[in-house]
Amino acid sequence: MLKVARVLMAGAAILWAGSALAQEPKATPAQAKALLDKAVAELKMDGPEKAFAQFNDPKSGYTIGELYVFVFDMKGKYEASGGNSKLVGTDAHDLHDAEGKYLVQEMIALAKSKGSGRVDYVWLNRADNHVEKKRSLIQRVDGHIVGVGYYLDQ
Questions:
Q1: At 75, which helix (H) or strand (E)?
Q2: How far apart are the C-alpha atoms of 107 and 50, rounded to whole Å?
Q3: What is the pLDDT along the chain (154 residues), one digit of tens a residue?
Q4: Theoretical Cys-Cys bridge with 54: which of 60, 64, 99, 130, CB 3.0 to 4.6 Å?
Q5: Is 3 within a domain?
Q6: Is residue 122 part of a domain?
Q7: What is the CATH classification number for the domain harbouring 58?
């Protein structure tokens, strides 16, 4: 009986720890903007090859909690992704969100027309496995679209 109680208590502790992780505070718009500014400065200072290697490395300081840097070329091809470096080289031009919005096409149009801005969409939050509202801040640097996204409070 004592063994069963210990197993149940251990299981409850694991469940509590998991729910506490899922409840981790969301990144703020200011944190996302600061990471974007840092990435833009890195790209301008060190050039694409070195900067993209940094952005793709989760230990480099360009992936912080739910925040990470991504980069597309002006046609929608991934050049960097701190969220999943396996995406590099893939075409995201026709990528759409859970509601059918073509978010990369909107980022390209915004980068061409204004050079920077924000794009709102609906995306799967892997931390809690729920579809949530998300906003990406983007900035054009030469032929690259640099971005950082964060989940909005519901």
A1: none
A2: 23
A3: 444 333 333 333 333 333 334 456 789 999 999 999 999 999 999 999 999 999 999 999 999 999 999 999 999 999 999 999 999 999 999 999 999 999 999 999 999 999 999 999 999 887 788 899 999 999 999 999 999 999 998 6
A4: 60
A5: no
A6: yes
A7: 3.30.450.20
Q: Hey, which residues does 78 pair with through a beta bridge?
A: 72
Is-contact 117 138, C-beta < 8 A? yes
Distance CA 24, CA 122 (A): 20
Q: What is the pTM of this model?
A: 0.83
Does 14 map to a domain?
no
Strands (E) across 61-115 are located at 63-64, 67-73, 78-81
Is residue 15 a part of any domain in this protein?
no
Residue 152 and residue 101: Cα distance in Å, rounded?
17
